[in-house]
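A.,

Following up on our hallway conversation. Structure tokens first:
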């Protein structure tokens, strides 16, 4: 290595250390983990983007709307499984109890049974109503849906171990494989049932393969957490309404406006949601740090970091709003009617920093505050969605999502302060 290269490297390290002192943030950790998470999100975003282009060009709007409806029903039904197990697993792995990985997979499979029963019952209902597409679609979900979460728990294991490089590479494969399978399937069929089956099978197959890889590569020991099931149950109860609220917008749009408008809405939110996924990865980086440090220590600099992050999100939202017409004209010309909705929806990117207060509360198992958040946040979101969609159509749905995200941001921040004061009183 030349002396010039060493000098530049030393200057860069000094700059990083100076910025760390200024922001009171471990930027070296963020740069290292954030780089690999960026690779993961870039690959995932690219896969989703390519899939969206194929859907926009080759799948009729009504078929795509029906497909999105079934996908949303599937994710809502996951609310009745143990959705909190990934968060609980990541926490126990961060504490060194690696054997919990095996236990979590078994528990997750078992808790998929209620979801399968509800999906089958819904399928029977649709058959009675004469809707065979949704009837068979729900039966496919009943048969395959309970296997998806257990096959994806490898990500929580890797995040808990801070293996961000492997987390990113496996995450990229996990996103790209089902997307590629769907792209191939679309060139042979645009059947709604075929698409939902390929979506589920693709995710489960690659998840199972990556789970096997993690077992072979890392050989988790047998040390199990005795409270992962209890923690998972608590987080699942907290997540019940949030999981429903996360997908209910599609069901509400389908109910009030129909399959074609659901297709338009799905494309309107698609690119901002991809950006949200990429930017929201900061909470994955934060969780292991939050677990390992006292709450009062984190709280000292928490707000300055959160507001800085939010300012950056506002810039991203503005840039996207300016670029949206060109992006749609180039890649989704069949959905130009979604542009104005997408530009307004960019505002929903600004309050996604609420993921950080929630991650902080989860890492310190602030049960009371988490229950409050996971009841009040989704309840308002659902009520506003029903009211504004039924009254003002798609623009009402967009505005309702922005209101819901802003409410979640304010509420999560207030609950962090509430928890901090409660700890002070106890001590």
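Then the amino acids I'd put at each of the 427 positions:
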């Amino acid at each position: 290595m030349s002396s010039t290269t060493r000098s530049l490297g030393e200057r860069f390290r000094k700059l990083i250390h100076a910025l760390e002192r200024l922001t009171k943030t471990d930027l070296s950790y963020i740069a290292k983990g954030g780089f690999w998470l960026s690779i993961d999100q870039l690959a995932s975003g690219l896969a989703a983007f390519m899939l969206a282009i194929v859907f926009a060009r080759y799948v009729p709007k009504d078929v795509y709307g029906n497909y999105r409806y079934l996908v949303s029903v599937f994710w809502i039904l996951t609310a009745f499984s143990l959705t909190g197990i990934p968060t609980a697993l990541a926490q126990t792995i961060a504490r060194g109890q690696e054997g919990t990985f095996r236990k979590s997979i078994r528990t997750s499979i078992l808790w998929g049974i209620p979801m399968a029963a509800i999906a089958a019952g819904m399928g029977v209902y649709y058959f009675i109503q004469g809707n065979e597409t949704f009837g068979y679609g729900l039966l496919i979900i009943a048969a395959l849906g309970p296997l998806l979460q257990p096959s994806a728990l490898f990500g929580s294991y890797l995040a808990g171990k801070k293996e961000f490089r492997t987390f990113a590479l496996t995450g990229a494969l996990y996103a790209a494989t089902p997307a590629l399978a769907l792209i191939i399937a679309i060139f042979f069929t645009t059947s709604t049932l075929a698409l939902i089956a390929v979506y589920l099978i693709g995710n489960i197959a690659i998840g199972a393969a990556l789970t096997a890889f993690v077992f072979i590569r890392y050989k988790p020991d047998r040390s199990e957490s005795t409270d992962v099931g209890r923690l998972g149950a608590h987080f699942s109860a907290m997540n019940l309404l949030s999981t429903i609220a996360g997908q209910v917008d599609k069901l509400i749009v389908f109910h009030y406006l129909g399959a074609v408008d659901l297709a338009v809405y799905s494309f309107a939110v698609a690119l901002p949601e991809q950006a949200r996924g990429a930017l929201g990865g900061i909470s994955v980086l934060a969780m292991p740090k939050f677990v390992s440090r006292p709450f009062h220590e984190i709280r000292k600099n928490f707000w300055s970091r959160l507001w800085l992050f939010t300012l950056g999100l506002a810039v991203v939202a503005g840039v996207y709003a300016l670029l949206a017409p060109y992006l749609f004209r180039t890649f989704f010309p069949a959905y130009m009617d979604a542009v104005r909705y997408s530009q307004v929806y960019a505002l929903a990117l600004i309050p996604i920093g609420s993921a950080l207060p929630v991650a902080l509360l989860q890492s310190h198992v602030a049960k009371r505050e988490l229950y409050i958040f996971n009841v009040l946040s989704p309840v308002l979101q659902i009520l506003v969605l029903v009211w504004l969609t039924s009254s003002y159509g798609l623009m009402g749905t967009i505005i309702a999502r922005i209101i819901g995200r802003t409410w979640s941001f304010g509420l999560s921040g207030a609950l962090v302060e509430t928890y901090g004061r409660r700890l002070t009183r106890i001590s």
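Residues 22-27 have pLDDT under 50 and may be disordered. Curious whether your intuition agrees with the design.

B.
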